[in-house]
Write a structure and sequence with these properties.
The protein is an alpha+beta fold. The protein folds into two domains: 155 residues, no CATH class; 142 residues, 3-Layer(aba) Sandwich (NADH Oxidase). Helices cover 41% and strands 13% of the residues. The chain is built from ten helices and nine strands. It has a four-stranded antiparallel β-sheet, sandwiched between helices. It has a three-stranded antiparallel β-sheet with strand order 1-2-3. Strands 4-5 form a two-stranded antiparallel ribbon. The N terminus is likely disordered.
Length: 351
């Protein structure tokens, strides 16, 4: 994933196109509507009616062109600055479109104030006597409304942390006034537990991407990377996989992660590369899940044909392991581990 900040990208082109549309419609409105009676688009409901607005959106703060222009410039600068902090993942495309719309609306009306001394409004809803407006006003209003909806749905939780410069993988510690420190590898190893009870709360896309990124970076024999990571969120498919496992708790988690690989080669040591490669990748992802506050439980006991059928996995892929993944609804005590002297052999086995 590339999170590098950029001043200009493809969404800048979208903003430019929206500004052009706004300015073209204003020129057309001035040339065809100025001094004319209103043009009835839908009689008694919606019409085109020319107005030179010296205030803000929808006619507010009339006569304060200089002050409004200065405020607009500051707000546009803030939009550009925060746009740079939007994560570059596909999940945030909607947010980048929203920022582009708001930016285009602000620029469109700023151009009017600077070069005309007023803003051209020409859209009018008759029944509610709504103030006349233009496309730029529409971009800003729709963008603001979309931001609220997105904040409550797509980006609920910590999805808007980029606005406050909170780094991914860290949480704002409101009670202590400091950021939670990331786990070390050893801390993640100690924090990992086999979780068999899960909350229904969905996993934030950015956390899921971090887990998958850990698997992508795992080593593999000859660096062949023949694995596939299947993320199952569909309720019907999760139920089918759960039935194949014979363990009901698997279906409680909002995600089931399955690792399979097409590498059927036997290594010189006599071990199948597919099992080793997929196991390493799964281990990496389980540890990253622990770092993200997510629970997992390695599942090796499952009906392989049933899982294959449920997930439509091609025959050339060997299914190695799967795990439910989600927020834990339990905090089990650590399982006992043997002492180091019971498992450590130095140099060679004694005869």
């Amino acid at each position: 994933m590339n999170n590098k900040k950029r001043w200009i990208d493809g969404y800048f082109v979208l903003a430019v196109l929206l500004v052009v549309c706004d300015q073209v419609t204003k020129v057309l409105a001035k040339n065809t509507l100025e001094g004319q009676d209103a043009f009835q688009v839908i009689p008694g409901i919606f019409e085109f009616s020319y107005l030179e607005n010296t205030g803000a959106a929808f006619g507010s703060f009339s006569g304060n062109i200089l002050a409004l222009s200065a405020v607009t410039v500051l707000l546009l600068a803030a939009v550009i600055w925060k746009y740079r902090d939007i994560p570059r993942e596909p999940h945030y495309r909607v947010m980048r479109i929203i920022f582009a719309m708001v930016f285009a609306g602000g620029v469109g009306n700023l151009i009017d104030r600077i070069f005309r001394g007023y803003v051209i409004d020409f859209l009018y809803f008759v029944p509610i006597n709504f103030p006349k407006f233009n496309l730029a006003d529409t971009f800003i209003t729709v963008g603001a409304a979309a931001f609220i909806v997105a904040a409550l749905t797509l980006y609920r939780g910590n999805g808007l942390d980029f606005l406050w410069h909170v780094k991914q993988g860290q949480k704002d510690q409101q009670n202590h006034g400091q950021e939670e420190q990331k786990m070390t590898v050893m801390e993640a190893i100690k924090a990992r537990k086999s979780i068999r009870k899960y909350e229904s709360k969905p996993i934030e896309p950015e956390k899921l991407e971090q887990v998958l990124e850990a698997g992508r970076l795992a080593p593999s024999a000859r660096n062949e990377q023949t694995w596939k990571f299947l993320v199952t969120e569909n309720a019907e498919q999760r139920a089918a996989v759960t039935a194949a496992c014979g363990q009901a708790f698997v279906g409680e988690a909002p995600v089931i992660l399955t690792v399979c690989t097409a590498n059927q080669r036997m290594m010189r040591c006599g071990q199948p590369a597919c099992t080793i490669d997929a196991s390493i990748a799964m281990s990496f992802m389980i540890l990253e899940a622990a770092e993200q506050g997510l629970g997992t439980c390695w599942i090796g006991s499952f009906d392989e044909p049933q899982v294959r059928a449920a997930l439509r996995i091609p025959e050339e892929y060997q299914i190695v392991a799967l795990t439910p993944m989600g927020y834990p609804a339990e905090d089990p005590a650590p399982r006992p581990r043997k002492e180091m002297q019971e498992i450590l052999v130095k140099d060679s086995f004694a005869e």
